[in-house]
Amino acid sequence: MLKQWQFRLLTALALVSAALVITNIVMFTNNRDAQNEFTSRAQYIQQSQQIEPVYQGIVRGLAEISVKTNDPQIAQLLTAQGITFTVNPANQGEAKGKAK
């Protein structure tokens, strides 16, 4: 038979143990969710790096077409997406000289 103080001590230890188990479960779940989010972002970054040259080529092509055809709509489209470009006057002069 347990004495009153032994019963209270064991009950308190059981409650502390249960609280620690619940805390461990919550932390494990949060950690797993964070790992899944990290993995998803890492995969997105890796896939983005693989298709980055394609995007760069598209943007470069649009910028060149905008300059060659003097099309302000394409320039506005690129600017709206946060893409800026400048025309290199030396290359433009060489292109005109070679075309003649």
Give an account of the 3D structure.
This protein has 100 residues and is mainly α. It has one domain (8-86). The chain is built from three helices and no strands. The chain has helices at residues 4-69, 72-80, 89-99. The longest helix is centred in the middle third of the chain and has 66 residues, at 4-69. The termini are far apart.
What distance lies between the first and last C-alpha atoms, to the nearest angstrom? 110 Å
Query: What count of structural domains?
Result: 1
Radius of gyration: 32 Å
Helix segment count? 3
Cα shape: rod-shaped
Please mark out the parts with pLDDT under 50 across 5 or more consecutive residues, or reply none.
Answer: 93-100
The average pLDDT score comes to 88
**Portion in strands:** under 5%
The largest sheet is: none
Keywords:
single chain; 100 residues; mainly alpha; 0% strand; rod-shaped; disordered C terminus
